Amino acid sequence: MSARGTNAVRAASVRGRSTDAGDDSPLRIVDIGHHSHDVLMDAEVAFWSLIARNRLDDVLADGPLIAAWRAKRAAFAEEMDVLRFRLTPSAVYFNPTERCNLDCTYCYIPADMRRRGQHMGETEMTAALDRLRDYFRTTVPEGRKPQIIFHGAEPLLNREVMFAAIDRYHDDFRFGVQTNATLLDDDAAAFLMERGVGIGLSLDGPVAEIADRTRRSWGGEGTYAAVIAAMERLRGYDGYNVIATINQGNVAELTRLVELFHAHEVPACMLNVVRCTQPAAETVRADDALVTRHYLAALERSHALYRATGRKLVVVNFANILISILAPTARRLMCDISPCGGGRSFFALAPNGDLFPCSEFIGLPAFKGGNLFQDRIEDVLASPAFRTVTGRRVEDIAACHDCTMRHFCGAPCPAEAHEMNGGMDQTGAYCGFYAEQASYAFRLIADGRHDDFLWDGWDDGTEVAFSLDLARLSRSTPGVGGEGSSWITG
Amino acid sequence: MERISETTLTPPTQTTEDRQPKAADIIASRRSCNADGTGLSHYILMDKTPRS
């Protein structure tokens, strides 16, 4: 079956079926593939309840759950509106150079730019961070620091300028570096760890033969050995993670990759599907069904390793989907929400000052919203280029508008949808995969396993907005709650 | 998360129905927080201040 055929089959189940309340009711019953439970969902406000199938009739007969949902619906809608439309930026993907010493198969930055592009000089770096600091003082709540993620291309090619900036602006920003690890020597690793800088590495396979298929230098030399060496330098540092980009060449190796990360005590990883924004990336894209099968197997393996050792390897992009279900406003990543975070909770800065909604757009001149050195950031955020991205709502996408998982997926990614499928009103490349991830997340919650997949303290700073009142229910009818039951409704 | 359950959940290691714990009949929960000042893309996590 083709990927799009797979998507069509899956789409039918995630739309759910109507309740007896009729088609006008926003409630849908969704089969998530669990052996005993379905999800009752009001997708518009991201409300859900897992219900044993033999209790569905009880619950839907206007019982306490339905009453509590009605009472809280407006508050849930307001919360989703804030999350989706009223955030202001708090982070920048900051490219201190256009150049890269690698020529990875799927890179979204044009090859000529990576080979012959420019570095940002110290003067420009200072001017850029001064402007960003002044802007964020107007948008980021007091007591929090905005985040600067040095990104690429390969930021360590411009190491001296970048490191000087980290020292100069340490009171103003939290810093992170995403690097291919080839230049992360002992001194660089020590510098970053001593300053608490977040570090992201990239590795696509559990052995060199696989990892080096996609990530290699212009001369064809792979990066596997360098990344393993870097992981050893960073062992014990909890501020780093490793990203694997899932593609045809490594999709069957995700479980072994998780085992490798866990063995090296990597605290967190991301298993990101390759984005098909550039045509070359689409040539290595793996089929949805294949990605789903191996991705879920890798998650299960990470869980088994945790149960065996007591040490978690958090798969952050999946954890984020779990959190988007458990506490929508506590999510940390903003790809799987619509509109995505591009241009509204973060934006990307090219070395010449050009601003884009996300790094994914840096190779697409039509999405340049302005220039940091010439334009006001507020005006850039309001530019047509940015508005095209920040105005992309999942409700406006024909394939998504009635999907119950739409606020746990967000139809990522706009750059991919635009370049691969022809417009912002299209889905991206992995509809079926995202639907299965959300269904799997619900199954974990039903089985009480979800906390094992989340980092400790993920809910610090959150409060209960809606929950069963166990104390009172224990004095009444077990299960659905009878007379005398109540709900905490925030 | 608060749950209604009459059984103590144990960590399952298999997905077969007969080896799974009995799930609570009804599970419903939502937590909330101020969403301002957070949110990155798929590239990096900086959720907490690292410790070396």
Describe the structure.
- The complex is a heterodimer of chains A (490) and B (52).
- By secondary structure, chain A is α/β, with parallel strands linked by helices.
- Chain A has helices at residues 3-14, 56-60, 64-85, 111-116, 122-136, 159-168, 186-194, 208-214, 224-233, 254-263, 279-282, 288-309, 316-326, 377-381, 384-390, 414-421, 431-446, 470-473, and strands spanning 17-18, 27-30, 37-42, 47-52, 91-94, 147-150, 174-178, 198-202, 240-246, 268-273, 314-315, 346-349, 354-356, 370-371, 463-468, 487-488.
- In chain A, the strands form 3 sheets. Chain A has a 10-stranded mixed sheet with strand order 11-10-9-8-7-6-5-12-13-14. Chain A has a 4-stranded antiparallel sheet with strand order 1-2-3-4, sandwiched between helices. In chain A, strands 15-16 form a two-stranded antiparallel sheet.
- In chain A, helix 5 (122-136) packs parallel to helix 6, helix 12 (288-309) runs parallel beside helix 17 and helix 13 crosses helix 17 (431-446).
- Chain A starts with a helix and ends with a strand.
- The model of chain A is unreliable at 1-9 and 470-490 (pLDDT under 50).
- Chain B has no helices and 2 strands.
- Classes of the chains: A alpha/beta (490), B little secondary structure (52).
- At the A-B interface, strand 4, helix 3, strand 7, strand 9 and strand 10 of A face strand 1 and strand 2 of B.
The end-to-end distance of chain B, rounded to whole angstroms, is 31 Å
Query: Mean of residue pLDDT of chain A?
Result: 89
Strand content of chain A: 5-15%
β-sheet strand percentage of chain B? 5-15%
> What's the tally of helices of chain B?
0
What structural class do you assign from the helix and strand content of chain B?
little secondary structure
Total strand segments of chain B: 2
Helix proportion range of chain A = 25-40%
Query: What is the count of helical runs of chain A?
Result: 18
Please summarize the sheet with the most strands of chain A. 10 strands, mixed
Order of neighbouring strands in the sheet with most strands of chain A:
11-10-9-8-7-6-5-12-13-14
Counted beta strands of chain A: 16
